[in-house]
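Practice problem 4.
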């Protein structure tokens, strides 16, 4: 079969520096007319075909952006709607868990399997990280559907929890609280832990707390939550922009916390309740070092690295309850349970509920904006206790 001969149109010519060129114009993806030149009609024809192909690809990319392009656009759209700290968290997670594995793919080419594979990495992290990344995937692709860029979201075919069991965040028991406080008595995290356990403040609220919001000499001593802590490039930033409007609250404090704060204030040379050696708010790294006093006293197996003869060597620590650390006899492994900053707050809320404090009061003291958050915790805590279940059943049946 004879090969079909190219139908080359007649092009105009133009003289440039004494040389004759064939010339034509094409319209680019932005609607601008661009001139193309060549020495022969055949060469110009090939240039036109290549230009049309590139223009078509540009139009396709514009209509169907890559995951990277749309994620960056989505983050820009969100920037004015959420707090600076939340935006930083979103940027980090989008970059590491969405753009890194899928950034070069077109939105329309992403499948549910692609997302399931991308979720494998955050699945190795905490439940919080996993849930946050899953939420970002869902919101980004739903936004793309609303914008008409794709017909349906591939996230629709992924189960709500992605098949990853959520870890129960159990509050500390009274016995665990006493063991924790004994283990860190006189150490840097002690005051932080006391505020978390007996006032229920969030981490960012504790680290931003200043003495002008600690009212110890009132008839009813209380703390005022008026500031929040976050970091920018590891540097502490104290803001009056709280997580929600409900976060602004005055919390009466029990005697044990009053005594703790009186002692801390007597020895403080800073305006911050929790401060570094220079009297300033803690940086992100400094807080991790403070919390390490708790981690190093736990029996959780962990790894560390040492250089031996210039060679980086991995070591594994397998702490035994009641034993002292091999390289520091002052560190005794006395905590065989997990402790997190949020767990302190969860323990505070749980203890209020066990004391039969009504849900609306718990909601206020916890700084919950939505009552559903409080009620979910309230229902689980109150009615998972046998004595409460028995009381409820007897009441229902008139016993």
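Answer key:
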């Amino acid at each position: 079969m004879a090969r079909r001969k190219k139908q080359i149109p007649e092009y105009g010519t133009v003289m440039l520096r004494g040389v004759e060129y064939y010339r034509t114009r094409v319209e680019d993806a932005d609607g601008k007319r661009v001139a193309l030149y060549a020495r022969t009609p055949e060469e110009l024809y090939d240039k036109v075909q290549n230009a049309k192909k590139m223009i078509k690809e540009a139009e396709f990319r514009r209509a169907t952006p890559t995951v990277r392009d749309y994620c960056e656009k989505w983050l820009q759209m969100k920037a004015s709607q959420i707090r600076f700290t939340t935006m930083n968290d979103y940027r980090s997670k989008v970059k590491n868990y969405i753009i890194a594995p899928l950034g070069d793919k077109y939105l329309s080419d992403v499948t549910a399997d692609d997302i399931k594979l991308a979720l494998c990495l955050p699945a190795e992290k905490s439940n919080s990280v996993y849930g946050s990344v899953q939420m970002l995937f869902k919101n980004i692709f739903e936004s793309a559907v609303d914008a008409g860029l794709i017909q349906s979201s591939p996230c629709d075919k992924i189960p709500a929890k992605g098949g990853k069991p959520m870890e129960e965040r159990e509050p500390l028991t009274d016995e665990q609280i006493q063991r924790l406080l004994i283990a860190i008595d006189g150490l840097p995290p002690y005051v932080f832990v006391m505020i978390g356990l007996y006032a229920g403040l969030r981490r960012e609220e504790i680290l931003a707390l200043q003495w002008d919001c600690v009212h110890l000499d009132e008839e009813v001593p209380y703390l005022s939550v008026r500031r929040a802590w976050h970091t920018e490039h590891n540097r502490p930033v104290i803001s009056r922009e709280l997580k929600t409007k409900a976060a602004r609250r005055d919390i009466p404090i029990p005697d044990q916390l009053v005594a703790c704060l009186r002692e801390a204030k007597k020895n403080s040379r800073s305006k911050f309740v929790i401060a570094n050696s220079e009297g300033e708010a803690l940086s992100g790294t400094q807080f991790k070092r403070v919390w390490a006093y708790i981690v190093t006293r736990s029996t959780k197996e962990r790894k560390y690295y040492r250089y031996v003869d210039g060679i980086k060597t991995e070591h594994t620590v397998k702490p035994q309850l009641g034993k002292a650390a091999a390289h520091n006899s002052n560190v005794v492994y006395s905590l065989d349970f997990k402790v997190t900053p949020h767990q302190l707050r969860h323990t505070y809320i749980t203890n209020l509920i066990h004391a039969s404090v009504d849900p609306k009061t718990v909601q206020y003291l916890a700084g919950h904006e939505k009552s559903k958050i409080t009620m979910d915790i309230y229902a689980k805590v109150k009615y998972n206790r046998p004595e409460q279940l028995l009381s409820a059943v007897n009441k229902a049946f008139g016993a």
